[in-house]
Design brief:
2 copies of one chain form a homodimer. With 102 residues, the first copy, chain A, is mainly α. The first copy, chain A, has one domain: Orthogonal Bundle (434 Repressor (Amino-terminal Domain)). Helices cover 65% and strands 0% of the residues of chain A. Chain A is built from 6 helices and no strands. Chains A and B meet through helix 2, helix 5 and helix 6 of A and helix 2, helix 5 and helix 6 of B. Chain A binds a DNA duplex (30 and 30 nucleotides) through helix 3 and helix 4.
DNA sequence: TTGTAATATGTCATATCTGACATACACTAT
DNA sequence: ATAGTGTATGTCAGATATGACATATTACAA
């Protein structure tokens, strides 16, 4: 996780669950957020590997450029479902997904 | 995946995405569904391992018995987010999650 | 500089998921 | 049988995620 991502994490959005205070997240909330960030990073590298722009990927996935950007940035508004479905659509196998997670 | 789960899959709900026809699912839709079923199975075995009822688990997770049942059954209305968050709350590590997925 | 392509950010109506509830079903034990 | 306990299923109002759009920011040419 690079500095930019970390900053986003700290900055806004992710004040989830019952703990209202700044960065006062439970372990499982933290784990879920970090998981999403990993998947977002993977999505980005897969996209670049295929030399696609966010707009092109958006059309391919029948989504929108802004949502791709949010996925890659680890935005709190994106679901695991969308991330995983997108990775599968890009051809990631279940085993590869598992490697990303571990 | 046992027969009951498979039946549920075929029976109702999962007619997702652009393909309207019965069981006419794309590869990535299929992969996502099977992933959710695996996670649901894992949730159930973890719960039983802890000798909890669905109601007890529901209270622990601040959810409801019916939603636990749906998670374990692979109901199309449950998100990956909820499944993964629940598994993390039950103490599953990221590495263990990765093993379940692979 | 100016232009322009790529990416980031904010907002919103609609779609989907959520906990809660009611109720049905399955299985024991009495 | 019937009472009790656990699980499944259906529904719904409220909560959250979605694609779409507008606009901002960045990066890099000409």
């Amino acid at each position: 996780m690079d500095a930019k991502k970390r900053k986003k994490l700290e900055a806004k959005g992710w004040r989830v669950g019952s703990a209202r205070d700044f960065l006062n997240l439970s372990d499982e909330e933290m784990a879920l957020i970090e998981l999403k960030i990993s998947l977002g990073d993977t999505l980005q590298s897969k996209r670049k590997q295929k030399k696609m722009t966010q707009l092109e990927l958006a059309k391919f996935l029948k989504s929108s450029q802004s949502r791709i950007a949010k996925m890659e940035a680890g935005d709190p508004s994106v679901s695991l479902d969308l991330l995983v479905k997108s990775l599968f659509s890009l051809g990631l196998s279940r085993r590869e997904l598992s490697k990303v997670i571990s």
